[in-house]
Amino acid sequence: MTVSTPQTMTDKNIVDRSRTHKNAAVMKTVRNTREQLQHGREKLHGFDNEMLRLHINAVLQGAAAPPVLVILTAVGGLWFDDAVWLLAWALMTLVVYAGMIMVARRASREHSNDENFGRWRNRFLAAYTILGLTWAFFAYQDCTTCQGDTFVFYKSAVLLIALAATAMAAFALRRALYFAAVPVIAALALRAAVSQDMADVSILAMILAAALFFVFMSKRLYTTNVKMLGYQTEKDDLIAELEVANSVSDEARRRAEESNLAKSRFLASMSHELRTPLNAILGFSEVMSGEVLGPIENASYKEYVGDIHRSGQHLLNLINEILDLSRIEAGRYELNENALSLADIAEDCISLVQLKARSKNIRIIEAFEENLPMVWADEKSMRQVTLNLLSNAVKFTPSGGEIRVKLGWTAGGGQYLAIKDNGPGIAEEEIPVVLSAFGQGSVAIKSAEQGTGLGLPIVQAILAKHGGEFVLKSKLREGTEGIAILPAKRVLESMAPVEGLPSAAVKKKRAFS
Hints:
The longest helix has 92 residues, at 198-289. Residues 1-22, 40-44 and 500-513 have low confidence and may be disordered. The protein folds into 2 domains: 22-333, no CATH class; 337-512, Heat Shock Protein 90 (2-Layer Sandwich). The chain has helices at residues 24-39, 48-61, 65-80, 85-110, 117-140, 150-170, 176-195, 198-289, 299-329, 342-359, 379-396, 431-434, 442-446, 455-465, and strands at residues 337-340, 363-368, 375-378, 402-409, 415-421, 469-475, 479-486, 508-512. It starts with 23 loop residues before the first helix and ends with a strand. The protein contains 14 helices and 8 strands. By secondary structure, it is of the alpha+beta class. The strands form 2 sheets. It has a 6-stranded mixed β-sheet. Strands 1-3 form a two-stranded antiparallel sheet.
């Protein structure tokens, strides 16, 4: 004999509400991300790792440009001066550029996270420092065989181009331009101090101004790229949040479907279990109330029997209404449609509530338009709609009041049934409440004849099942009017609405008192 444990017992129709949501960790991350998006990013250094990757790509993609600049600079210098130092400088500068490219290639393979960010950043800054020293050597040199200021202009033009190229390549690496430009400016300042020549002072001022401008532009480019990365990250976070929300929605829908299925199965299985003893209670209470097996001499016992019968009937009605609403919500409410007359159904239902209306001295006034054709609908459902509206009207109409039942054409060619009472009415803000399942207004709560709160939702659902509409109009101390509307496609005789005729044109008008 085997004992089934909770782990081995499985039922796909049972919802395990103790289970931790599988997306809890992701949802926590999304909440943190949402707070970041709402309050913004407080610093621009949150993307240093991404900016380093951008710098690595820039160095690798522009690897051919610096050697070309160095070679052209050396060739142009040799045209001005047969100086051997230009060849040595060109070779040394090319070696530095080659070393930077090798560092960039290795970094592209090995740099992957924030742990080794500082190490690679320091290597690049060291490379830019060495590069600045090589260009500082070039800036300090002078032409011994040149006439005039031709070589000065040539040197200043080369330094400007080199500075601009460095600024464009190194803007993604913070402070890289400082390490490259400071040695050059220092060399030019030393040259100007030693020579006391206005040409050297002019080139120093020009390179210093250009360096400041390029530093400013590099910062702007860096900030712009960081913001773009921030926007991209926010977009990715929003997409992730939408995906998580969709996953949570799917999970919630699945749980709701499981709950609805469990509820439907419970109601279906319990309806028989509840109705069987209720039928016995109702049957025996009727037998006792009718004194079939002998008189009940105790008046209190006879009153108790009546209370038992009324309570059982109320409970049975409640069960039937819950089952009807459950079938409608589950889409299992089948319509048995045939041709019927709304006027005949209304008259039959009025006859059923007439006894209770007379006990409260309530008049029921009929006003039916004549020659109304038959409609294609479910007779049982339409009787339920009419009885629910009439029962509510009788329940809340005070003694000596009146109920008006109107039947006629809609403006669109359909038919309507309107039942209006002169009871206490419903506040406008409570109308959505009374139209919801188990919803009751303040008047109904205070009333001695409280219902289940399912009558109007069932009416609304049945009419929607027919493609129709239910309209509830009410104001405090002015009464309530419920209007059941069937569309024109339900009318068996298509007939255009007659304009200009008053609604008082009726087939018959009679009052019950």
